[in-house]
Specification:
alpha+beta, nine-stranded mixed beta sheet
């Protein structure tokens, strides 16, 4: 059974936010401009991103609303078609709540659908690819004929300055430097809000192009590597993670336990090496010659990693020339689980694809070093 991506869509909240405007939306910690902001932005190369916030820092959309809007855009030309959908598979790293599940909340906003199967895939960047694989396999085994998968983030709510107020106050009382650590401040300048959606079916489009899913491979190094990016927890000196459930409400605020944090040293020494060595193994196993790939879509959190990816591909004899790379990180920002959806949507609607083109998707996830790769054929 062949499986096709027949429609793609994206939704971004509000207008693009430039680098100079970021602290207008997110606020300044302790009333001071960030010391790391300029350094991080120079390295990541992002010039615009989107926030589900207004300039007063008030929320304008939930994560579920971003996703539901993207899904409805799939059916703009045939609104009745959404009633035929049998499966909703969603991925995100920033759900609006712990319970109910993210996918259930999205489904709750789609009154046009019936009592369908809903699946929530948690994690960070790879959760969107897990959502895609679940939908793909459901059609592949002939259990479903029409499925929606999504990837989204609403990170802005955990990047706001007021989340760190109690931590800064505590530092001041202790006569310590009243600035949050780089592992927290770093990510405030990296992330964007948005959602992407795919419609998968067991038959290709009668008119226009479709993308046949050849294969999807995912693998994790969690059994060998300690946690790199985390939220709702604190990393202990031995590398283990202590859940927010082990802290009092006051400790959660004073340590900003609910903020997103990243071990930068661990990230730099592992994220590219582990995943793209793995790609070499996958291509060999699948009998894919790298010269047959027409478009390479790497999800990157920062342009800092672009040359590093190129170098390791070259070292593994699977070099992909830069003229085959496609990314919109500069204009859309890093949307985590939604980024690969947002890239593929732009490419699919660019007019640059032709029948027979091969598209390689690559999604690294730093949380505990997971990776996803997918090969598509334009048909």
């Amino acid at each position: 059974m062949s499986v096709y991506i027949n429609k793609t869509s994206v939704f971004f909240p509000n207008e693009p936010v430039s680098n100079d405007e970021m602290e207008t939306y997110l606020g300044q910690i302790n009333g001071q401009c960030s010391k790391s902001k300029g350094i991080v932005l120079r390295n990541n190369g992002i010039e615009n991103r989107f926030y589900a916030l207004n300039k007063e820092g008030q929320a304008t959309h939930t994560n579920a609303e971003l996703v539901a809007t993207a899904i409805l855009k799939l059916f703009e030309t045939n609104q009745n078609e959404i009633s035929e959908v049998e499966l909703l598979s969603c991925g995100t790293g920033t759900p609006d709540q712990l319970l109910p599940s993210h996918a259930a909340m999205v489904h709750g906003l789609l009154s046009q659908t019936s009592e369908i199967e809903v699946v929530s895939n948690s994690g960070s960047c790879c959760s969107g690819m897990h959502a895609l694989k679940y939908a793909y396999l459901s059609i592949k085994c002939s259990e479903k004929q029409k499925a929606i998968c999504t990837g989204s983030e609403r990170a802005s709510s955990i990047l706001k300055a007021n989340l760190f107020d109690e931590e800064v106050k505590k530092l001041e009382l202790l006569d310590e430097n009243p600035h949050v650590g780089f592992e927290k401040d770093f990510l405030r300048w990296m992330l964007s809000d948005g959602a992407g959606a795919f419609l998968l079916e067991d038959k290709k489009n009668e008119q226009g192009i479709s993308l046949e899913i050849e294969w999807i491979e995912l693998f994790s190094f969690a059994s060998k590597k300690e946690t790199c990016m985390y939220m709702g927890a604190e990393k202990l000196p031995d590398g283990s993670i202590n859940s927010y459930q082990h802290y009092s409400p006051m400790e959660i605020m004073q340590k900003s336990i609910l903020s997103l944090k990243q071990d930068i040293k661990l990230l730099s020494s592992n994220i590219i090496e582990l995943g793209f060595n793995g790609l070499k193994t996958i291509l060999d196993k699948r009998g894919i010659h790298v010269g047959d790939i027409d478009f390479f879509l790497p999800h990157m959190s920062s342009f800092f990693f672009k040359s590093k990816i190129y170098e390791i591909l070259e070292r593994n004899n699977i070099k992909i020339p830069y003229d085959k790379w496609f990314t919109n990180l500069k204009t859309k920002g890093n949307v985590g689980a939604g980024s690969i959806y947002i890239m593929l949507d732009e490419l699919m609607k660019s007019g640059n694809l032709k029948i027979g083109d091969k598209i390689l998707l690559a999604v690294p996830e730093s949380s505990r070093f997971s990776y996803a790769f997918c090969l598509l054929t334009v048909c």
